[in-house]
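To assess whether the prediction recovers the assembly geometry, we first specified each molecular entity separately, as shown.
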Amino acid sequence: MGWGRRLVTATPYLWLLLFFLAPFIIVIKISFAETLIAQPPFSDLAQYVDDVLTINLNLFNYIDLYEYDLYLTGYLSSLKIAAIATGICLLVGYPVAYAISRLPEHSRNLALMLVILPSWTSFLIRIYAWIGLLKENGLINNALVGIGIIDEPLVLLHTPFAVYLGIVYAYLPFMILPIYTNLVKHDHRLLEAAADLGASPVGAFFKITLPLSVGGIIAGSMLVFIPAVGEFVIPELLGGPDTLMIGKLLWNEFFNARNWPGASAVAVVMLVLLIVPITIFQRYQAREMEEAQRG
Amino acid sequence: MASASGQTGWLGRLALAAGFTFLYAPILVLMIYSFNESRLVTVWSGFSTKWYGELLNNEQMLGAAWTSLRIAAMSATTALLLGTLASVALVRFGRFRGKTLFTGMMTAPLVMPEVITGLSLLLLFVTLAQSVGWPAERGMTTIWIAHTTFGMAYVAVVVSARLREFDRSLEEAAMDLGANRLGVFFRVTLPIISPALFSGWLLAFTLSLDDLVIASFVAGPGSTTLPMVVFSSVRLGVSPEVNALATILVGLVATVSLLGWWVMRRRELQRQLDMRRAQAQ
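The predicted structure of the complete assembly is given in tokenized form:
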């Protein structure tokens, strides 16, 4: 490699090593520290006094995670909420992606832009928009009472339902885009051949289109599932006090309890849980890149 | 469900209508109610622009907006630079030692939960401050570093996609005509991928402007960003000023995007016209 190429590679590489990889190692280190009332509020792991190196590994942060039901429940319910919301996203997003891929070419780009556009406006404000709709005297309740479908306003805000709705709403574009990218590359002659051989359109869809689009489904699902597990804003604004999500617990541990080592342990366990989905996502990304390079 | 290529059946049209209604209805309601006179966001009591006036007098909100815009411009620019370098390395340099780790570090920020990124970066800054004395205090610089790091991953997605579909015969032609590698990159490659560079920059800019969680971890006193102010006022309940702010933001984003789309479409049409003319001759 010439020095020019070295420079081009090394600049972003070093940046990522320092500001992306190194932080994780430090989180792991501090998750074994003790909480102190000091600045910064955690103990040193290694001490070097009188030629003796002492290393203190404090496992209590992890034991706490195991012993307090709050955290176990938090992890489980985060995984559950993220998985169900990803499933709903797929059911809503797939038909939309499919319909866009079938539009004439010039309107495809406009439709695609309309899908992306909301995610270019503020995430926070889009979640906030649902508060006004879901409140007890909000627009949805007012409309339903007005038409006479219900007599009493429904409790919609600060419920698990609102959290699911918020995740599906906020992450839907991330499901639609990769599925669309996959569908638009399909060779339509396959479907014509299937029709010639007597397959019904529905049969051809389930035998040909759906299996071919598995790559897009996996990418979209990972793009929704992984960030949704650690989501903070949605459960904080739309969820109730009983909607436990691990991102919110980590936030409270850090900002309210000021327990930095505890928050680090929460983060490390979350990362371990997410390693498998992140690896799947990365494999898929790498394969996509290779295919694009060859094609 | 499957109709012939290039056609959308009624089921498809239904899916599109339902999907876009779901995506846009909440935003539209928000925008309409920003012109509501009453403080009660859910009861319509008459048209008024007074919340826009109050927004313009809200010093805290304006100050935070200015901070956010400056951070977004700085981090989008560095993210564009680093993300483009990374794309060139990943797409053009073939295999090199450590490429797997590099690819991993470039894609992981796209999905990493924000609470993890925020906490880990803060702990890095604290550790660095203890051991080497830098950064002395947290503020705009630390937010800029954090936003550059996730921004460059998004820039790389956009730019490397463009680099991969790039017709390399143009570069080879320039080389044959005696241009050197660097000259080719600046005079042939960069102008051709410039739309991707622009959308990459814009993406990094809007992501930075929008970030609440990571900035909350790495910010210091005196570097309150717009999402932090919005978040603390939204936590207290619905506020018409936030609706007014949302309307301005959505209006700006929609204008820029539609303009971009229109310019691209015109360029595409022009290109097709030129091709046809060239063929006719």
